[in-house]
Specification:
Blueprint lengths: L3 H9 L5 H11 L45 H13 L16 H7 L6 H8 L14 H10 L48 H12 L2 H15 L5 H6 L10 H10 L5 H11 L29 E6 L11 E4 L3 E7 L3 E8 L5 E10 L10 E5 L3 E5 L6 E5 L4 E5 L6 E5 L4 E5 L4 E4 L4 E4 L8 E5 L4 E5 L3 E5 L4 E6 L6 E3 L4 E6 L2 E6 L4 E6 L7 E4 L2 E5 L3 E6 L5 E5 L6 E7 L4 E6 L3 E6 L13
Helix pairs in contact: 1-2, 4-5
Length: 595
């Protein structure tokens, strides 16, 4: 268990999110997505399902993470305490006879998705449960947990990243309730506008909020820690039926006659199992409890740097960002790379930089560059149609060749992605390549969705490939010269005077009208960033809240680069000036930057 300490430290310092940390804890506690009887457990975090606007700055929006979801009120705590003393004579007293995680709970929440739909039918002898007991409303499910002592359900991870969980995408017939209401999609709160994408986004935002970050250690103590049982668990009203605990289950088997063994086994299998205990002492608190607010909410500092004249020949500048540095590539007769190291603050030391030549490269109008695995510069655009991989000393490390026509798209990261006018796409590693086919004309743009193992590309239509298998999984009949994606599975394409946003399943999410004079657009997290002649417009795609960076003078930008790990934006204009904007997340105050 010592390995978990490094993840706890990363969570404490904000290096990993609440969602990531909870998934890690579930894994260490032997919870698995492959076993519904020991499925990963996530907390209810919100209790406000009535308001039209979700206020994450109000503590009354959230449940109390110090107590189980079924012991949130004084009345429910008194009831739990009474039940504990009523069962003392049994030898193993407990607050609640049901459990917060079981096969039935997983199938209840995920009944609209396969394979859970089929498993649910098997559980109920060939059909779904009666309509009144099917998961149909977030508000109703929360209220049940507060008003029914036998309803002790926590949530499953999909509530924070999978919109399909709430939509009857397979058109199942769930029947009609006794009040005559047809059960179809899950009814979502007003603050989600009954939209599954918006709900998941805001629900995830609540999970990562300052309040939850400040209090999540309490819930970890309940589920994975020292409050699972014994006296600390008793004071937190967190003692469940003894058969759900690994140690007590084994002891009960030894004490009982053999005829009860099968019954005990079936009860543990179907009615809940407490996770393996990970922590024996109170879990540490998170260091920072400040909300990570959206990028558009505060734009505070500006740094402007003019390129050294010896490097300026009215040719483009390329800004690349890695974990530990950012790289400016200047073009003269040769291609020069300047590496700036990040300082401890959200900027860099201009006096501490390294300047190297990328050996063997010459500038062409089709020149493209990016960073691969933080250790290599990849580039294309040479007349030989190759992809060059240079190390940080500027020396050629490897040359990749496949395409027979000019490369139109090149990106790095964990993989190298290249697309070409020859209608092919290749996903490269150092030693392997995966060929993606399906386009019938030259490809204009291609991007990786690493979180979902997908590649999205466009020509006369949009294709979505699984880059692990090379298979096309979806086609969109939309034509665009540029496609962008974000980490939430959204696909952005420009169509005349609007930007269309699709989910990776092909479902249209939203259309945002932009001015015809707009030159370009970018995507940063949940924001669409639109270039106008005098400003950058940051449009939050869920609530359509807009903020702007006003430029000193009307200019045309040649490049915009977002540094995610430092919350910085680099802007490069056609006058060889690059500008750095710092996005300060220390305040939720919203205002517009002026110069």
């Amino acid at each position: 268990m010592r390995d978990i300490e490094k993840y706890t430290q990363k969570w404490k310092t904000g290096e990993i999110s609440n969602l990531e940390y909870l998934l890690i804890l579930n894994n260490y506690a032997s919870r698995s997505f492959h076993d519904t009887s020991q499925y990963p457990i996530f907390p209810w975090v919100i209790k406000d399902f009535n308001s039209s606007k979700l206020d994450l700055s109000n503590k009354d929006t959230f449940r109390d993470l110090k107590y189980p979801v079924c012991a949130q009120t004084l009345e429910s705590q008194r009831s739990a305490k009474k039940h504990f003393y009523l069962t003392v004579s049994d030898g193993y007293p407990y607050n609640f006879g049901s459990h917060y995680s079981s096969s039935g709970i997983v199938l209840y929440y995920a009944t609209r998705l396969e394979p859970f739909s089929s498993d649910n039918k098997k559980l109920h002898r060939g059909s779904f449960d009666v309509p009144d007991r099917i998961f149909c409303s977030m508000k109703k499910s929360w209220n049940n947990s507060q008003n029914n002592s036998s309803d002790t359900k926590e949530l499953i991870p999909e509530f924070f990243y999978l919109p399909e969980l709430f939509v009857n995408i397979n058109h199942e017939n769930f029947g009609t309730t006794q009040t005559g209401v047809e059960v179809n999609d899950v009814k979502l709160p007003k603050w989600a506008n009954n939209n599954a994408f918006t709900f998941v986004y805001k629900h995830r935002k609540a999970l990562e909020s300052g309040f939850v970050s400040k209090n999540l250690h309490n819930w970890i103590d309940l589920i994975f820690g020292y409050k699972q049982n014994s006296r600390p668990g008793e004071t937190a009203f967190n003692i469940f039926h003894p058969i759900t605990y690994e140690g007590k289950y084994s002891k009960m088997l030894l004490e009982a006659s053999e005829e009860y063994h099968k019954a005990y086994f079936c009860q543990a299998l179907h009615f809940g199992q407490t996770p393996r205990q990970i922590f024996k002492v109170p879990h540490p608190k998170r260091d920072s409890t400040t909300d990570k607010v959206q990028i558009y909410e505060r734009i505070t500092e500006q740094y402007r740097y003019e390129c050294s004249k010896k490097f300026v020949y009215h040719k483009p500048i390329f800004i690349l960002n890695s974990q530990n540095s950012f790289i400016v590539i200047f073009v003269q007769e040769k291609i020069i790379m300047t590496i700036y190291k990040w300082s401890n603050t959200n900027t860099y030391d201009t006096s501490n930089c390294k300047e190297v030549e990328l050996v063997g490269l010459f500038y062409t109008e089709n020149f493209k560059a990016d960073i691969y695995q933080d250790d290599f510069i990849i580039s294309s655009g040479q007349n030989d149609l190759c992809i060059y991989m240079h190390n940080m000393s500027g020396k050629i490390y490897k040359v990749l060749h496949f395409h027979t026509m000019p490369i139109t798209s090149l990106s790095g990261g964990s993989y190298v992605l290249s697309a070409s006018l020859d209608s092919t796409i290749v996903v490269w590693t150092e030693n392997t390549k995966t060929l993606l086919l399906g386009h019938t004309s030259g490809i204009t743009s291609a991007v990786l969705m690493n979180e979902f193992c997908l590649v999205v590309s466009c020509s006369d239509f949009i294709l979505i490939h699984d880059y692990r298998t090379g298979n096309v999984i979806r086609k969109l009949d939309e034509k665009s010269s540029k496609v962008l994606v974000n980490e939430y599975g959204m696909i952005f394409i420009r169509c005349e005077d609007e930007v269309k946003i699709f989910y990776m399943t092909g479902q249209i999410f939203k259309k945002i009208v932009v001015k015809k004079i707009t030159k370009n657009f970018h995507v940063i997290n949940e924001c669409l960033v639109v270039e106008d002649s005098s400003c950058l417009r940051f449009i939050q795609i869920y609530d359509m809240v807009e903020s702007c960076i006003y430029l000193q003078e009307p200019i045309e930008l040649s490049q915009m680069c977002y540094c995610r790990n430092k919350d910085l934006i680099f802007l490069v204009n056609h006058n060889d000036m690059y500008t750095l904007y710092s996005l300060d997340v220390s305040s939720t105050e919203k205002f517009e930057l002026w110069h």
